[in-house]
Amino acid sequence: MNDIEVTITVNGTKHRLTVGPKERLLDTLRERLHLTGTKEGCGVGECGACTVILDGEAVHSCMVLTAQADGNEVLTVEGLEVNGHLHPLQEAFIKHHAVQCGFCTPGMLMSAKALLDKNPNPTREEIKTAIEGNLCRCTGYEQIIEAIESAVNKNLAS
């Protein structure tokens, strides 16, 4: 199979890459672009550790081929920080102790950001639904939900 030329915009920066036809977006982000905040947990789209925002949608990057992202925009957890300042969601996660081992945190943040971008005032149930594809073995989810609610209540989603 032949390599494929792709152009993807990641965290606001356009990248032109030559990738294999079976290369996953997760691998492109981590290995080629050195954006290691996106984690590989299960590799089969079950844990959510690899969640990124692709054209406004939270997706498991282990299930997306890089070629499928050609011409599209990707936001990773590294893209949440602006000018050295944490995103309000990141600050809320810290304040509410929603970060323990940290492995699931990037995916949780990206799922929460995708939700709040579409629905700046979600209910608790909508928050739970938005993060249901993200597994956490440390926090029991309550602190994560409270952190997201805090960002909503303070209108800090943007």
What do these coordinates show?
The protein has 158 residues and is an alpha+beta fold. The chain folds into 2 domains: 4-79, Roll (Ubiquitin-like (UB roll)); 88-151, DNA polymerase, domain 1 (Orthogonal Bundle), CATH 1.10.150. The protein has 5 helices and 5 strands, in the order E-E-H-E-E-E-H-H-H-H. Helix 2 crosses helix 5 (142-153). The radius of gyration is 15 Å and the shape is globular. The N and C termini lie far apart (42 Å).
What percent strand? 15-25%
Q: Report the principal-axis shape.
A: globular
Helix content: 25-40%
Low-confidence stretches: none
Q: At the first level of CATH, what is the class of the largest domain?
A: Alpha Beta
Pfam family, one: Fer2
Domain 2Fe-2S ferredoxin-type: 4-80
GO molecular function: 2 iron, 2 sulfur cluster binding; metal ion binding; oxidoreductase activity
Protein name: Carbon monoxide dehydrogenase, small subunit
